[in-house]
């Protein structure tokens, strides 16, 4: 199995299976079409690494740091990606599609403030206390996700899909809510932000 501790800088079509690295720094590596399976990178710092069309499956990424990293078509599945400040990464000025996506992941206590995440998939996730303020979540898929205590303020939710999501608090007057999809009974929470009397 390839190692991330060797001087090799570039990896293509590699599978890292069961790799465990904790509280270390991995710098200036480039990964193309790589798969990380059942790996543990708790509190690891990925510094100025590049991930192109990579997949993380059943990985533990608690409190990783990603200063200067870039992502393209990278997906996280059945993984814990908790407490990550995604604003540390290097993001394109304008992105037509989110470079990352999450399915059945834990991403609680993470920060996406001000990022362009158009079309991002955060499906069937636990995303509690996540900061989405000022982010562009146009056409985001947030279906079946627990969004308890997550923050939405000046967030673009145009055509975003909240169907079967739960515990969210979206103020319709403080966010862009246009053709956004919601489902009952959770959508009743939207009424709390309206100056109406419901009998």
Number of strands: 12
Number of helices: 0
Tell me the span between the first and last alpha carbons. Answer: 64 Å
Helix/strand structural class? mainly beta
Q: What is the element string, with H for helices and E for strands?
A: EEEEEEEEEEEE
- Low-pLDDT runs: none
Strand line-up in the sheet with most strands: 2-5-8-10-11-12
> What global shape is seen?
elongated
Task: Summarize it.
With 199 residues, the chain is mostly beta strands. 0% of the residues lie in helices and 19% in strands.
Characterise the protein shown here:
By secondary structure, this protein is mainly beta. It has no helices and twelve strands. It has strands spanning 10-12, 15-17, 25-27, 30-32, 35-37, 45-47, 50-52, 55-57, 70-72, 74-77, 100-103, 122-123. The strands form three sheets. Strands 2-5-8-10-11-12 form a six-stranded parallel sheet, with no helix packed on it. The protein has a four-stranded parallel sheet with strand order 1-4-7-9, with no helix packed on it. The radius of gyration is 18 Å and the shape is elongated.
